[in-house]
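Notebook, p. 212. Picked up where the previous page left off. The plan for this session was modest: take the two constructs that came back from the sequencing core last week, fold each one, and keep the raw output in the notebook itself so nobody has to go hunting through shared drives later. Recording the first one now, exactly as returned: residue sequence, then the structure token string.
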Amino acid sequence: MLQTEGPLSFWKGLTPTLVQIMPNAGAQFAFYRLFQGLWNYCFQHEATAAPGAVQSTFCGAASGITAKMFVYPLDLIKKRIQVQGFEEARKAFGSVRRYTGLIHCASCILKEEGILGLYKGFWPSLLKAACTTGSHFLYYEQTLKVLVYLHRFVL
């Protein structure tokens, strides 16, 4: 990459990644809170009790899926920009496009593939989001429990 495209090629896809990460992380936490409230309402648990492993995993998975639904077009654009430069290897998969940036990529997708083009590869991405975000929130809650225990023990 350095020889053929220069040092900036190592940062391909950085702009959509940065534009995507903040709303994705914020949405994950917001939806996690929402799904925890719904869980507590449906199963009549007290909101003050620390969530169990099943609850935090399920609510985390649901929050990951919901957040991914909103930011997926940016994820797709990021990936399309990042794979540029591998045209020879990708010929067998269909037409190869060159994009100059986030806006150019989005407009090309909309013009050539329509609005649904922004959601190609969506289902595997949802599965990944459910698994990873579910496990993130499981470990998040378990870590909070350990920290609360250590805080009580130390004080």
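Okay, moving on. Second construct, recorded in the same format:
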Amino acid sequence: MGRSKEFEESAVLKKAMELFWEQGYEKTSLNDLVRHMGIHRRSLYDTFGDKHTLFLRAVDFYGEVIKNRLTAKIAGTGTAKKAIECIFDFAIAGNNDRLGCLFVNSATELASRDKEVEEKTKKAFMQTEYLLRALIRKGQATGEFSCKYDSEILAESLHNTLIGIRVLAKTSVSQEKLHRIVDFSLAILSK
């Protein structure tokens, strides 16, 4: 008769996500994971497979956590502009620990040589870009934003700024500077 799990899978997956987020994939050893997750090596293999599979699951877990937090934050914003500002504020304020964004970190560390990581980060980036495009279209439809530029091009440009903000937020750049960059980038939406 097999042993039952002595841990909550989502709780230990969250711990793995946190460790990968803090240290990156390459610097995180199996010993680090076992110690940080508080489970036995055999349990790690039985539940999550190898380190790479665990990393991919941790990235998915991160995506769900961020999606849920961001959805909750923008739900009551009312206007497209407020929702977009909220997305940027979330990227700036959410990085007080300078960990950055796990998707951006994973893309820069692994995507060029790991097809599965590239697919996951590309999907996450596209989802953010689609969200921005939908908000821009909403703002254009209500007259809140100018229709001078195509919503797809605007979304691509704002997403590029958002990724840059996520990278800069990992450094000692002040939040004031990050907000100035965002304000300048969002000015293109105005009439």
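Notes on construct two before I forget. The two ends are 69 Å apart (CA to CA).
Flagging for discussion at group meeting.
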